[in-house]
């Protein structure tokens, strides 16, 4: 379980709530803007990836909304090299449009959020809350904090007012795993991971859609395991610790699941840089234990 000594136990954190109010408020506007922003921009992000117009728009919108929240001291984005100063308070790390490569194929994507106490880079134990929006057939938001994990439906009225409706106030990982989703190309998997994957493929159903938030939400809903593993040509995998792996690991561990970088909890990883990548494995505890044993052989 994440370290919640940073939290005054029991009292909901009004700044965290304001952060997720801001994230929810931008979700419908991001969704509305996507049809006209499926093209690639000329820019690259700090991870060297081509930035879609949708990524840039989401980053601008979220940057503006989150730096305006009292109690947010820094906005840190996958799309920006450095933190954007916002005064005093939490550092809010964001992947503005995770899975934006799904924009052309019209598949799920969303925003990943980590609320850290103190400056970044930091370990996941500095998280006080984390979550993600999912722009699927409906817009949902999963929010994890010291009180637990909840799923909300985000709707916008004709008036423009955005509403967050809690549809599950105690989201826990299903005991019985059902689905798996493994990223990267099979030829690029290590022998140890490939062997583990072959076992899991015989036990569970494949659910992989190329967007971490969509694929993790399958595991959140049906139980199982998601991985973007270490690859033979990318031993640190693809996903960024601060913006993707830590927030997702925090959510899954808060739900009673487990996370790993291949050797131990993602939340223990101590990064050198803001955009460090890390292999990510999350899901039911037994499947993560088996994964760590398989990679240790
Ligand atoms: P691949 C999306 O680009 C992303 O960052 C994650 O959302 C997703 O899990 C992964 O990359 C997909 O990568 O190599 O399968 O296209």
TrEMBL record:
Signal peptide: none annotated. GO terms for molecular function: fructose 1,6-bisphosphate 1-phosphatase activity; magnesium ion binding. Its main location: cytoplasm. Residues 173-295 form the Fructose-1-6-bisphosphatase class 1 C-terminal domain. Residues 18-151 form the Fructose-1-6-bisphosphatase class I N-terminal domain. Binds 2 magnesium ions per subunit. GO terms for cellular component: cytoplasm. Its EC number is 3.1.3.11. Gene3D superfamilies: 3.40.190.80, Fructose-1,6-Bisphosphatase, subunit A, domain 1. It catalyses: beta-D-fructose 1,6-bisphosphate + H2O = beta-D-fructose 6-phosphate + phosphate. Transmembrane segments: none annotated. It is found in: Cytoplasm. The keyword Nucleotidyltransferase does not apply. The keyword Magnesium applies. Mg(2+) 2 binds at residues 95, 98, 244. Substrate binds at residues 98-101, 208, 238. Mg(2+) 1 binds at residues 78, 95, 97. Keywords: Carbohydrate metabolism, Cytoplasm, Hydrolase, Magnesium, Metal-binding. InterPro entries: FBPase_C_dom, FBPase_class-1, FBPase_N, SBPase. It comes from the Archaea. Pathway: Carbohydrate biosynthesis. PANTHER family: FRUCTOSE-1,6-BISPHOSPHATASE-RELATED, SEDOHEPTULOSE-1,7-BISPHOSPHATASE, CHLOROPLASTIC. Homotetramer. Belongs to the FBPase class 1 family. This is Fructose-1,6-bisphosphatase class 1. It comes from Halorubrum alkaliphilum.
